[in-house]
Amino acid sequence: MIIIGERINGMFKDIGQAVLEMDPKPLQEWAVKQQEAGANYLDINTGPNTDDQVTTMKWMVQVVQEVSDLPLCLDCTNFDAIEAGLEICKKPALINSCPADRPKIERVFPMAVKYNAKIIGLTMDAKGIPKNAENRIALAMELVAAADEYGLPMEDLFIDPLILPVNVAQEHAPEVLEAIKQTKLLANPAPKTVLGLSNVSQKAPDRPLINRTFLAMAMACGLDAVISDANDDALMATAATAEILLNQSVYCDSYVKVFKSK
Amino acid sequence: MAFEVIKERYMSKVNEVLLGATAENGGSRSHVLKVGGQTTLPYLHFEGEVPNKPIIAMEITDVEPTWPAPLKEMFKDVYNDPIAWAKKCVDEYKADLIYVVLNGADPDGANKSPEECTATVKSILKAVGVPLIVKGCGDEEKDNEVLGKVAEECAGENLMLGVAEQENYKSIAAACMVHKHSLIALSPLDINICKQLNILVNEMGLPLDRIMIDPMIGGLGYGIEYAYSIMERIRMGALQGDKMLSMPMICTVGYEAWRAKEAYSDGEEFQGWGEQSFRGPLWEAMTAATLIQAGADILLMRHPQAVKLVQKNITELMKSNKY
């Protein structure tokens, strides 16, 4: 399971403030903390506090790379900002994200190929997020076709079938699970699958419980990666245990510890 | 349409482990040996890299062993002299390295002191230039003393010391770490314990590239298929990025092969089996050849004729089959 640490995001108060003041410390602290907890990628989201996304993204990438050698997941709706980040990323990055929308595909896929980056492709288009698995898969197929068209290796495409908060859109969860299963059948080699996990538990009282339960269920359906709270120990232990139970890694008594250190 | 070779792309590779150290690195070996480093399954040169060939360590003991006749026949002139024995293996039989089993330390046998055992190892180091693998007698307490002493006195030589087991690894792992040697981690045909032991040893501070996996084997006809499938799984783990299974593998080929009655029986009971002097070495060679296919990196062997056959087999396997 690929863990993408979600914490360096301008939507969080401390990071939003740091972005405003150009104070590298909170970003760097979270980079180290998430890496130590077992994150494999660090998500970098500029957040709403900046007018100049390009400059902010570059600055964020720079200060995080000063303290961590993890690859980055550049999270922004402004593709110029993402490109500015890609230019200075030391390791092949993950672009977060590209919807199944032709003009955006035409902007993002060539850029990914140019910088040897991977893409998170969202199963949504200009009309929004589909209600069922079937329509999610139709959009996933467009992204798979785009990977083929632009020469992006299929393993470098991460399909995100977009989970919605369970307290307001309960009917989406089983559709997302079905979409994960079917996405793995779209090509050979199959594209990867990813979820922005924390979204499932928005505004619910026991968020970690919902997050880790859904994670285990999604992993059983073929989930490869997750954008989540790497510092939620129970969540990480759940991911480690699900890997063992799915026979994806070899059991040993210290398997949770190994999962976090790899 | 052109023929397209389907190639698997693995995300990781087997660790490279060095054996021995030359003068510039604090040892006295004439050369060092390297094993591991594969980026694909055994000998699929067309798919990935197989940078280092498997190597053969010939087994000698510090006290006269009770080995079957064909082995005794080959070594009768040196059976009582580990130094001459080691030299013979290197000079005459082209052993890549020497595997010294300190059976003399056994409290129920010759009960040699740690000092005596260390002196033997040091004389062998003087007599031959190849790297050494040194194993204890099997008595945990005594081995911890003996191997601790050997490690200390031969500091810097980068010996490969064995064996660490789940219930007894701390003392030998610490000795390897402090005095710069490598370690054989033995698990009883159990991939889960294998992985756990590597973690435990690594947690003591021994780097992963100084650990060698002994998966424990069965000889041909005596459970070799269990060893084969465990070794396959270990190697797949390594290639798929499991750092705690990424070590090269070492196999006690001679020990297991010569425990089989097909090898040790002098033939009186089994007339149809043919000459033991021919049958025994073949049994050992076939055991080795099978394990090489499963990914063995170091073969601990006994009979010179078996060694010769396996050397030939290795040369063949290392020829490129790239498309």
Poorly predicted runs of chain B are: none
Shape, per Cα inertia axes of chain B? globular
Helix content of chain A: 40-55%
Secondary-structure content class of chain B: alpha/beta
Number of helices of chain A: 10
Which structural class do you get from the secondary structure elements of chain A? alpha/beta
Number of domains of chain B: 1
What would CATH call the homologous superfamily of chain A?
A: Dihydropteroate synthase-like
User: What is the correct CATH architecture of chain B?
Assistant: Alpha-Beta Barrel
Strand order of the largest sheet of chain B: 8-7-6-5-4-3-10-9
Examine the coordinates and then state which fold CATH places here, giving the name of the CATH topology of chain B: TIM Barrel
Taken from the alpha-carbon principal axes, the silhouette of chain A is globular
Q: What is the highest CATH level, the class of chain A?
A: Alpha Beta
Distance between the termini of chain B: 16 Å
Q: Specify Rg of chain A, calculated over alpha carbons.
A: 17 Å
Helix content of chain B: 25-40%
Please give the order of strands in the largest beta sheet of chain A: 1-2-3-4-5-6-7-8
Number of strand segments of chain A = 8
Biggest interface pair, residues each?
Answer: A-B, 9 and 14 residues
CATH topological fold name of chain A:
TIM Barrel
